[in-house]
Amino acid sequence: MEKVEVKELLEAGVHFGHLTRKWDPNMAPYIYMERNGIHIINLYKTAAKIEETCAALRKIAVSGKKILFVATKKQAKDIVAEKAGAVNQPYITERWPGGMLTNFVTIRKAVKKMASIDRMKKDGTFNSLSKKERLQVDRQRAKLEKNLGSISDMTRLPGALFVVDIKREHIAIKEAQKLNIPIFAMVDTNSDPRQVDYLIPANDDASKSINKVLSIVASAIEDGLNERKAERAEKEDTAQKQDAKPAPVEAKAETVEASKEEE
Fold it and tell me: Global pTM?
């Protein structure tokens, strides 16, 4: 995992909170001071929370469950798509589809529809459609790709949710809470940390801050995936060795005796 350095968090502007008048009192334990009407986040507490969060995310990655990243705000979209995509995790960076978690069966149907259009294009069925129908199908495919393309490989509910800006993604938070899915999030001074299971007190508005935190998080997930890969390789190796073992001496003796009796 990428090491958490307070100095690097400071350079990335992770410590800048919101205006003091916009604060949520429940964030008080993570606020260091107030400067020029802005709350300053205690980066030592942020570093400790990042390590705690990363340890939990690593365990989820080792278990083989997916972590769904959610960030629809402009400054976070591209960063989340890049970091989550790099570790092969699903993400939502466009509008949150209502019922994404609570009505997952319907969402899966939409994803299957996307796959069926792709099959039509491969087997030539698409070319047999009229020009107008092809245009409609292409538009439908583009819309599905934009909203659900990044979750096409998610065949079951995620093992966790990672959110950037819990105020903005409140619908996603509520759905995860209903299904008891663990919620990890970057939480700024204007949000209620009680809504999430694992919080990282941090500036969730600046792209530099988001990039820094997500780099560390993605690094921890990658470690978990590598550990899972190594464990599976070890199991397969052990199984192959057991299959290759010579037959026990007793079994060989029985075979010899049996063949003598036949003679």
Answer: 0.85
